[in-house]
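name: query_chain
kind: protein
chains: 1
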Amino acid sequence: MLSQLNWQPLVERQRHARLVMFYKIHYRLVSICIPLTSKFHLQPTRTENIFAYNIPSSSCDYHLQSFFPRTVQDWNTLPQEVVQLGTVEAFLRALLTI
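structure:
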C-alpha cells in the first residue's frame, strides 16, 4: 500500500518531522531554547557539518531516545549544504532527496 500511495515509511516521515522541527529551533523560527552546546566547527568534518551539536550523554535509554539526543545524531550527519538552506520548505525538499 505504501508503494501504491508513494509514501515513505513511517520511520522516515518521523525522522523528517524531527529534523524539520530541529531546523526551526536552530534558526530560531520557533521559541524553544536549545539545551545543547555547539561544537563550533570552523569547517565541516568528514562526518559532521559546521552546525553540529554535542550529543547529551545519558545512561537511561528513555532519555537517549528522546527528541534532542536522537535528533542531534541525525542533524550532525546532514550535509553542510542542507543545514544551510534558507527556508523550511527547501530544507524538507532536500531531506526527501537524501
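note: DSSP finds six helices and no strands in the chain.
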